[in-house]
C-alpha cells in the first residue's frame, strides 16, 4: 500500500461564481480535510508592462502581496466556504499574480511550479478553455502542456458521490487509476466504477479491469469499493455521459488520450477524446489526467 501524504490542490478563482463551483466541489467531495492543502489562485487581468516572457516565474515580483479589495473579497468568500466545510485557515493559502503570459499559461506555469496534485477550475474559469476547444485562440497562447491533472467543476451537484473511471484499453487507463486511487485512498465514502465502452475493437476487458483494480488496490482501495461496467456503443461520449447521469456520479475521470503538439492547442491540453465530454458534462466534475 502507498504511503499516505497530504494532497496539494490549486483552486483557480476569478469571481464569486467561480468560487462557488471549484471551492464548493472540494468542500463537498472530501471528508478527510486534514489530508488536503489548498491554494486559492487568482490571475489578475492586466498584464505587466515590458514583462519578459522568457521565464515569467523567475521574478517573484509577479506575486501581489496586498491584492485589490475585489480580489481580497473573493479570497475571503472562498475561505469562508471552506471553513464551513471543516477546513482550517492553516490549510488555505491565497496567491494573486499579475498576468504574465496569458491566463492559460499562467495557470499551467503555477501548477508546474507548485507541484500540485490537481488544478481545479470553476465555472467562470472554464470559459477560456471553451475558446481553446473552439480554436478561436491562437496556438501561440500556450507553449507548455499540462503536467498535473485538471478538474473542471461546472455546476457540480454537491449531493453526488463516487467516481466513474473511464478506460479505453490504453496504458493511460492505469495513469487515471493511479490519480483516482491517490485522491480517494482515505475517502471511504466514495466507490470507483471502472467503465469501458466496447466499440468492437477486441480489447481484453478482463485485463484492463484487472490492471486498473491492482492500481487502486495499491492505495488501499478494497475490492468492495470497486465496480466494473461495460456497454457496447459506437458513441463513446454519449455512453459515458449517460452512465454518469443515470447513476449520479460526482466525477468522470478520463485520460487525455490523443493529446499531441502537432494538432493544435486544444489537442495539446486535453486530447481530442475529452472535448465532447467537456462540452456536454453537467452536474459532475471532469477529471482529466495528462
Overall description:
The protein is of the alpha/beta class and 290 residues long. α5 (172-184) runs parallel beside α6 (205-218). The two termini are 24 Å apart. α6 links the parallel β7 and β8. The chain folds into two domains: 7-152, HUPs (Rossmann fold); 161-289, HUPs (Rossmann fold, 3-Layer(aba) Sandwich), CATH 3.40.50. It is globular. The longest helix is centred in the first third of the chain and has 16 residues, at 69-84. The chain has nine helices and ten strands. The protein has a ten-stranded mixed beta sheet with strand order 3-2-1-4-5-10-9-6-7-8, with helices on both faces.
Write the layout of secondary structure elements.
Blueprint: E1 7-12, H1 16-29, E2 36-47, H2 69-84, E3 92-99, H3 103-114, E4 118-121, H4 127-133, E5 150-152, E6 161-167, H5 172-184, E7 192-198, H6 205-218, E8 226-232, H7 236-246, E9 249-255, H8 265-269, H9 275-280, E10 285-289
Parallel strand pairs: 1-2, 1-4, 2-3, 4-5, 6-7, 6-9, 7-8, 9-10
Antiparallel strand pairs: 5-10
Helix pairs in contact: 1-2, 5-6
